Amino acid sequence: MAAVFKLGDNIDTDQLAPSDYVLEKDPLKIASHCLERLRPELASSIGRGDVLVAGRNFGCGSSRERAAVAVKYLGVSCVVAHSFARLFFRNAINIGLPILESPEAAERLREGDAIEVDLAAGVILRPSDGARFQATALPDFVAEIVAKGGLLPYAQARLQAKRRERGAS
Question: Considering the entire predicted model, what is its pTM?
Fold first, then answer.
């Protein structure tokens, strides 16, 4: 089970990766400052596998990839939002951060809810009352990129598979 940490609308990249830390090389240090201006206790409260749930336009603002990196290194298993800013969505996929769009879940889930997320099916369950929310499931190839840990590991795995195919022929 994952605990829900609830956020509002228009959480921007400056809140996710504050400019004071954006050039930091250690992703854990960036993550330790993620959302600190909005909720100073958040980074130290999130447990590995917990879920951020937000409203509309999560990740709006600049196109900095470090915002998605900060969220990934918080240790969350997924971000569920009503909607994502286009560039944040792509950056999240590129680094292997699982994200799901579900307006209903974003509206009905509450801080502290215990949930289960099935990324492959795009289903979010709240066992306490049996609530089930359907998210827009990621296309298979995008889900595979996320499962491999991002675009670079995905591309490396595909190249290795092609090399093995050529060697077997």
Answer: 0.92
